[in-house]
Amino acid sequence: MAFAELISTVERAMTRTHWTREAAKSLYALPFADLMFEAQTVHRRHFDPNRVQMSRLLSIKTGGCAEDCGYCSQSARMPGEKLKASKLMEVERVIDEARKARDGGATRYCMGAAWRSPKDRDMDMVLAMVEGVKGLGMETCMTLGMLTPEQALQLKDAGLDYYNHNLDTSERYYSEIITTRTFADRLETLDNVRSAGMKVCAGGILGMGETVDDRVDMLVTLANLDEAPESVPINMLIPIPGTKLENAAPIDPFDFVRTIALARIMMPTSHVRLSAGRTEMSDEMQAMCFLAGANSIFVGETLLTADNPGEDHDGALFRRLGVEPEALGDE
Asked: Which enzyme class, named as a word (predicted)?
């Protein structure tokens, strides 16, 4: 592709308001260098390419989930040895952990509970967590499963900034991974979150046996929402023994980076988070993801129940790349 033609393609991508699979797939299929150029060009229009947002994730209630997500060790329906269910964490402990994360440089604090949906009896504690973490001056995010419109409004009123509810994959492939809820259920919760006035955090997982078309379709769905998610986590599957996907073949690293680049082009003002799976990525692969437009990571040694690179490793990688943590308010 000629340089002038490539620039024209970038400009068209940046002004597009409705994506088709064909348009998105044509970008995905570009020569790798051309795709990276496009993604980095779009990225630099909206973000400092040498700053990365640091978020921290805490499991406030682990195990015993009624869903049957094929990738998750927290499912009560998992065929192998099940993770023991815990009680909802005490509010003060959550706030204390958030304070440590803030002092360590994290600007967003994400709290996750292994629920199909929160019960009314738990909402008072959940709302108190939001208010407490917000009081530390951090951005707040939660992932609690499906939400009713009333629950979404309660969370908004408590000060919740973001709600995470991943699509996981395409509508076509969804029932291969989860059968206890539908793709439409996912979209309904995202609509409830947006209608309540909160920001949306929604992405997916790569390496679950999906096709390129499935990855593209997932991003098309996200980009074509009435408002694209402000935060788009892209996870690489961590095959967990005992889960349905324990023997899933790993995704090709170049295919993963291509998906990051496509997400950046299609959702130019969103934070694209390099999420679960970084323990299986080389430093070079992570660097390619940052070059492709990823500008957010989770820090800390665990993500809910999965391993994550430690902060010492992330700090060393950032120094090698000349990358600095994004400060609150930089976006």
From this structure: transferase
